[in-house]
Write a structure and sequence with these properties.
Keywords: Membrane, Signal, Transmembrane, Transmembrane helix
Shape: elongated
Number of strands: 0
Radius of gyration: 35 Å
Order of helices and strands: HHHHHHHHHHHHHHHHH
Oligomer: single chain
Distance between the termini: 46 Å
Mean pLDDT: 74
Length: 378
């Protein structure tokens, strides 16, 4: 019976040790992710380890998809990621990516996309963004947007108040750009990207709601309606002054900070990278995190966000599973320690019982000897 109890405790040690060996790697990963949840760069690296380990062809398949969609910048981002992760890629894919990047950076392509951005006010790459920013710096783009959306508002039609507010903020920032000799240009570019993302439907729902609330605080709607009703894109100076009067510059701080963060992302990932960020962001904090991620990861940021989505920026979803791994590891460790404690106690008890039995046996033998000696003496 005694050895059965000891054997049971030993079996408990063996079972808990086996389970802990299976759970420990997952628990270690979960702990590392929780520890890195406030560091987008470290968090994305940990999540990439898991994603890439599950599918060895993931990078190659995404490069093929990016090339098929004409997004050479994204394909090149995956090449950078593969190079830093020591992932081998076929030579023909590397050649195709290189050729696509050269074509995208050619003078003719840049000129064509620049003109598109200047005329339409929409941007999805560096060239078209340059054209859009150029238009906004000459206030043509912002006045065009304010006049268009303002007239919709005045006539009771559907109005994109976010584009309206961003254009109004942009006019004030443009004025600051001229005063500071380009010092506010980065903010100007960031606001243009946000406005363009809204126009093409690539602004995340949460971020759009936040930006819409911020834009409504910035603009005096009745005054703006009057300015737009009498304004025209053919009289940019007069229209800009009238719009400026309806703009509360002191309330534009949040949108200006957003513009700065978007620009920081675009500086490292390009206009499309900034668009990707705006699409997955649920608020300005997400964009700020994306800026930190872009500063740390550079050219592979777009690939990371493509693979991880918003999970590249913060701990979303899966937190319950991570907690379960940690709880399971702690519970298994507790079971192992308890089994070791029980085994030690039972072994100690068995050893003490044996010593006690030996002492009693020796005492009995000694007593019997004394009795025998006493009988002989008598």
């Amino acid at each position: 019976m005694k050895w059965l109890r000891i054997s049971t405790a030993l079996i408990g040690i063996a079972a808990c040790s086996f389970v802990l060996a299976q759970v420990a790697p997952h628990a270690r990963q979960a702990g590392a992710i929780f520890a890195a949840q406030d560091d987008p760069a470290a968090l994305s690296e940990l999540k990439l380890d898991t994603v890439l380990r599950q599918n060895e062809r993931l990078v190659q398949d995404n490069i093929e998809a990016a090339l098929a969609s004409g997004d050479a910048d994204l394909a090149n981002s995956f090449v950078v990621l593969a190079r830093e992760r020591n992932i081998a890629l076929p030579d023909d894919i590397l050649t195709r990516v290189s050729d696509a990047v050269k074509e995208e950076n050619s003078t003719s392509y840049f000129a064509r996309r620049f003109a598109t951005g200047l005329v339409t006010g929409s941007a999805d790459d560096v060239a078209s963004l340059s054209g859009t920013v150029a238009g906004d710096l000459f206030v043509i783009g912002d006045i065009r947007d304010v006049v268009r959306e303002g007239k919709h508002l005045a006539m009771g039609e559907d109005t994109d108040r976010l584009v309206l507010g961003l254009a109004a903020v942009g006019l004030a920032v443009t004025a600051a750009t001229y005063v500071s000799v380009g010092g506010a240009a980065p903010v100007r570019a960031g606001l243009t990207l946000v406005k363009d993302a809204r126009k093409v439907g690539r602004l995340g729902e949460g971020l759009a709601k936040w930006a819409g609330r911020s834009a409504r605080e910035v603009v005096d709607t009745p005054m703006l309606q009057n300015a737009v009703a009498s304004g025209s894109v053919l009289r940019p100076g007069e229209t800009a002054r009238a719009i400026k009067a309806a703009f509360h510059a002191e309330k534009a701080g949040a949108l200006v900070r957003l513009g700065k963060d978007v620009t920081r992302v675009a500086e490292k990932t390009g206009a499309r990278g900034a668009m990707d960020t705006l699409r997955i962001a649920e608020g300005p904090k997400d964009v700020a995190r994306a800026a930190r991620l872009a500063q740390a990861q550079g050219g592979k940021t777009r690939a990371i966000m493509k693979l991880l989505g918003r999970g590249a920026l913060l701990l979303v979803g899966g937190a319950f599973d991570l907690t379960l791994w940690l709880f399971g590891a702690a519970l298994t460790l507790f079971g192992l320690l308890s089994s070791i404690k029980t085994t030690a106690e039972r072994l100690t008890q068995s050893w003490c019982d044996r010593r006690r039995a030996r002492r009693l046996r020796r005492a009995r033998i000694a007593g019997e000897a004394d009795l025998a000696n006493a009988a002989l003496t008598a």
